[in-house]
Amino acid sequence: MYSFNKAYASGLNTLFFRVFLPIPNAGWLLAVFEVFLPAFILTYMLTLYRVLSYLLLPFALFLSFMAALLLLTAFGNISALLPLFIVGATVIYLFSSLSFIHRGVLPNMPVKASMKDWIRVNAFVTLFFGASFVFQGIYLRGNEAFMEEVQRQMASMSKQIGPEAMAKINLKTLIATVLNVILIIGSLLVAHVLIGLAFLKKYAHLFSGGSNP
Fold first, then answer.
1. CA 7 to chain centre
2. Chain mean position to CA 201
3. pLDDT tens per residue across span 126-137
4. Across residues 51-62, what is the average pLDDT?
5. Looking at residue 44, what DSSP letter applies?
6. How would you classify residue 210: left for phi > 0, otherwise alpha for psi between -120 and 50, otherwise beta?
7. Which of 6, 22, 58, 142 shows a CA-CA span of 20 to 30 A to 92?
């Protein structure tokens, strides 16, 4: 199991760090924060990070359920492997980063060095996932083709749930609500990843190969 985890982390590290991000660490993010953010914001950055972690916890649990469904689907449909990979990596990142905060940062205790790899390599998948949510939440809001497709889908659903029930649904309000939720979740994910990558540099001394359970 350890060799599989090590190979998985090594493979993702090669893909996202050597191909998409040649910079080997996230120290530049911390430098940007220190230059452009006021000192009082940096003081409460850890609190903000914890709040973001707790806000995203229900979403992580929901994604865990989705990952289980995708895993079952992937056995018969290979196209489900990509969304399974993205959802799985996001779940791993969110729970790993939360574990790092509570087992390492808050008690100021050393954690396993492998936790840094788990957080770092999965963070970039999560960043892509969050950025795609932000893009969809903004782009689809004024996309006529998307609105027409939703209307066609709703028209086909009206045969199943009845025209009276469909008449009570405000389609524009429903779509706007869904897009707002997607935009908020995506923004939270992006902010969480950016702060998290900076924290990997700031608290690098905690990754000393400790054996915290």
1. 22
2. 19
3. 999 999 999 988
4. 94
5. T
6. beta
7. 22
